UniProtKB/TrEMBL annotation:
Residue spans crossing the bilayer: 41-58
Predominant location category: membrane
Official protein name in the record: MdtA/MuxA family multidrug efflux RND transporter periplasmic adaptor subunit
Family membership: Belongs to the membrane fusion protein (MFP) (TC 8.A.1) family.
Transferase in keyword set: no
Ranges where the Multidrug resistance protein MdtA-like barrel-sandwich hybrid domain occurs: 113-253
Domain Multidrug resistance protein MdtA-like beta-barrel stretches: 258-342
GO molecular function: efflux transmembrane transporter activity
Species for this entry: Corallococcus terminator
Renumbered residue ranges of the record's region Disordered: 1-33, 66-86, 405-442
Listed InterPro entries: MdtA-like_b-barrel, MdtA-like_BSH, MdtA-like_C, MdtA-like_HH, RND_pump_MFP
Gene name for this UniProt entry: mdtA
GO cellular component: cell envelope; efflux pump complex
Residue spans of biased composition, Gly residues class: 73-82, 423-433
Domain of life (superkingdom): Bacteria
């Protein structure tokens, strides 16, 4: 009985196949090794790039620490990781504060006269220099007087003749009166002579009026300054024929010392002004330049117009200025500031300290423990770089004038001097917590 062959693989077959399988498995790793290495380096470079981006992001946006989170919480925050906030403070002070009404205005001469000729004729000469200051009555120009001299001689001759006729009529009247007493002449003749005398008297009176008119026309050939002031540019040259009806005169004379200004204020401020005027108080008016930076002159209020302009809701006021230094000029645009009242002992802070939010106007007040506390305030009028505080701040309080935009309620602060002197902002001193520098306040 023969033995069956085993069920497993044939050892001979395995021996014949093993050499080829070993060769294939040995060659595969050798061919794929460069590809796997390139893949591995690509992933490593990508990972390094992500790590680098993460590091840059963390440096620019550091995560909030627990202290910072607590500082920004509901309690208003005390102190973050960055330490106290540097601020500049100024001290609330008390002083008398003037109350002003401001308006826009224009300078006007006290008197402005366009000089015209009163008679017709040839302009012979001009005696003024353009821009010269002249006094009332000074000779400005002269017209050829010869035609008017001739006319004057004519009317004087007519007057002399009519006066002689009148004198003869009076003599006849005296004769007729004596003859009537002797009953040598009729009464009708006497009455006729009396009427004739009165007629001649009227003619003589008319002649005397003609003489006065001729003398006046002759005087008008000398053109004089009607007011004192500064003459403008000459409008007619000598040699031209000028007429009394000419639309253009010879020159314009403006009175500049004193000079006036007309400006407008809102209608709701009129009662205050009228009350002061009726009490005969002298109200000061300041004239500033277009930029409201330079004070040009100081004068006094003269009067208020008699009606309100319905289109603008304003009323016009007139003020006068001595203008001895000629800083004001006709038609110059100015900003007017009318001093209407004075608040004695008012509490003032720099306007830069005022902040505005949904809760209204407020300031940050630095406490003795160097923490900033928000305090709502009620403001009054403004005077220069300062604002009156009627409620919310007391004299001596240190208010923040720089750095308030980064503060929160109760935040710790560190006082420092201002980097640059600005209007109404003074240095706060160093660590000693001083307030405004000497050059920072008013």
């Amino acid at each position: 009985m023969s033995t069956p062959p085993p069920s497993g693989p044939d050892p001979a077959a395995e021996a014949s196949l093993s050499p080829s399988d070993d060769d294939t498995s040995a060659q595969a790793p050798a061919e794929g090794a460069p590809h796997h290495r390139r893949l591995r380096w690509g992933w490593l470079l990508l990972l390094a790039g992500l790590v680098l981006v993460a590091v840059v992001f963390m440096r620019r946006h550091p995560p909030a620490t627990s202290a910072t989170t607590a500082a920004g919480g509901a309690d208003g925050g005390h102190g973050g990781a960055r330490g106290p906030q540097p601020v500049v403070t100024a001290q609330a002070t008390t002083r008398d504060v003037p109350v002003f009404i401001v308006g826009l205005g224009a300078v006007t001469p006290t008197a402005s006269v366009a000089v015209h000729s009163r008679v017709d004729g040839q302009l012979m000469r001009v005696t003024f220099q353009e821009g010269q200051h002249v006094n009332e009555g000074d000779l400005l120009a002269e017209i050829d007087p010869r035609p008017y001299l001739s006319q004057l001689e004519q009317v004087r001759g007519q007057l002399a003749r009519d006066e002689a006729v009148l004198e003869n009529a009076r003599l006849d009247l005296r004769r007729y009166t004596a003859l009537l007493e002797q009953d040598s002449v009729a009464r009708q003749t006497l009455d006729t002579q009396r009427a004739l005398v009165r007629q001649y008297q009227g003619i003589v009176k008319a002649d005397r009026g003609a003489v006065a008119a001729a003398e006046l026309n002759l005087a008008y050939t000398r053109i004089t300054a009607p007011v004192s002031g500064r003459v403008g540019l000459r409008l007619v040259d000598p040699g031209n024929i000028i007429h009394a009806a000419d639309a253009t005169g010879l020159v314009v004379v403006n009175t500049l010392q004193p000079i006036t200004m007309i400006f407008s204020i809102p209608e709701d401020r009129v009662p205050q002004v009228m009350a002061k005027l009726e009490a005969r108080e002298v109200l000061a008016v300041d004239a500033f330049d277009r930029a409201r930076q330079q004070l040009l002159a100081t004068g006094t209020l003269l009067t208020v117009d008699n009606q309100i302009d319905p289109n603008t809701g304003t009323v016009r006021l007139k003020a006068t200025f001595p203008n001895r230094d000629s800083r004001l000029f006709p038609q110059q645009f100015v900003n007017a500031r009318l001093r209407i009242d004075t608040l004695p002992g008012a509490t003032v802070v720099p306007t830069a300290a005022l902040q505005h939010g949904v809760q209204g106007t407020f300031v940050y007040v630095v406490q003795p423990d160097n923490t900033a506390h928000l305090r709502p305030v009620t403001t009054g009028p403004t005077d220069g770089d300062d604002t009156v505080i009627t409620q919310g701040v007391h004299p001596g309080d240190a208010v923040v004038v720089e750095g308030a935009d980064k503060l929160t309620q109760g935040a710790p602060v560190r006082r420092q001097r201002a980097l640059s002197s600005g209007p109404g902002v003074g240095g706060s001193g160093g660590a000693d917590g001083g307030t405004r520098a000497p050059d920072g306040g008013r």
